[in-house]
């Protein structure tokens, strides 16, 4: 069981990085290739997702499992924006609240797959998967490995 747990721990950072990379490339696909103009809330979600590609990529490359304290604020705030944005799109009672006063309205729905999957829903899914990965990440194993390496060097 320990070997399996170690295997999962080893790839959690890579999984989180791949999720952030996919979300970033997906948002660029929707805006640059499909021509969907992002609203103000979409830009806010991008602000919280795009840095994760670099932060998680470096952490995965260096196996830095103490990255949680830097990643979680971005994913929790970005996920909260995604929830609010998704509710603006799907709950008619919130139609009176319009945070996007210029440009594309925030309740505009560019995609509506299966009747519930919209762009903010996809962003929320990515933020949630990264957040769960960070909570599952055990930084103690990496610290123990560093201590063992230091002891071996001494």
UniProtKB/TrEMBL annotation:
<protein>
    <submittedName>
        <fullName>Disulfide bond formation protein C</fullName>
    </submittedName>
</protein>
<dbReference type="GO" id="GO:0016020">
    <property type="term" value="C:membrane"/>
</dbReference>
<feature type="transmembrane region" description="Helical">
    <location>
        <begin position="43"/>
        <end position="61"/>
    </location>
</feature>
<keyword id="KW-0249">Electron transport</keyword>
<dbReference type="GO" id="GO:0006457">
    <property type="term" value="P:protein folding"/>
</dbReference>
<feature type="transmembrane region" description="Helical">
    <location>
        <begin position="12"/>
        <end position="31"/>
    </location>
</feature>
<keyword id="KW-1015">Disulfide bond</keyword>
<keyword id="KW-0143">Chaperone</keyword>
<feature type="transmembrane region" description="Helical">
    <location>
        <begin position="113"/>
        <end position="137"/>
    </location>
</feature>
<keyword id="KW-0472">Membrane</keyword>
<dbReference type="InterPro" id="IPR023380">
    <property type="entry name" value="DsbB-like_sf"/>
</dbReference>
<dbReference type="InterPro" id="IPR012187">
    <property type="entry name" value="Disulphide_bond_form_BdbC"/>
</dbReference>
<keyword id="KW-0676">Redox-active center</keyword>
<keyword id="KW-1133">Transmembrane helix</keyword>
<keyword id="KW-0560">Oxidoreductase</keyword>
<keyword id="KW-0813">Transport</keyword>
<comment type="similarity">
    <text>Belongs to the DsbB family. BdbC subfamily.</text>
</comment>
<dbReference type="InterPro" id="IPR003752">
    <property type="entry name" value="DiS_bond_form_DsbB/BdbC"/>
</dbReference>
<dbReference type="Pfam" id="PF02600">
    <property type="entry name" value="DsbB"/>
</dbReference>
<feature type="transmembrane region" description="Helical">
    <location>
        <begin position="70"/>
        <end position="87"/>
    </location>
</feature>
<dbReference type="GO" id="GO:0015035">
    <property type="term" value="F:protein-disulfide reductase activity"/>
</dbReference>
<keyword id="KW-0812">Transmembrane</keyword>
């Amino acid at each position: 069981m320990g070997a399996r747990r170690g295997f999962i721990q080893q790839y959690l950072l890579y999984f989180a990085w791949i999720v952030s990379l996919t979300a970033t490339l997906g948002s660029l696909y929707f805006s640059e290739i499909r021509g969907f103009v992002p609203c103000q809330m979409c830009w806010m979600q991008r602000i919280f997702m795009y840095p994760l590609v670099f932060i998680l990529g470096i952490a995965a490359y260096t196996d830095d499992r103490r990255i949680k304290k830097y990643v979680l604020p971005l994913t929790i705030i970005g996920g909260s924006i995604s929830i609010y944005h998704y509710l603006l799109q799907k709950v008619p009672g919130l139609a009176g609240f319009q945070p996007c006063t210029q440009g594309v309205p925030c309740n505009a729905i560019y995609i509506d797959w299966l009747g519930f999957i919209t762009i903010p829903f996809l962003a929320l899914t990515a933020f949630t998967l990264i957040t769960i990965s960070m909570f599952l990440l055990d930084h103690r194993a990496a610290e123990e490995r560093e201590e063992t390496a230091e002891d071996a060097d001494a």
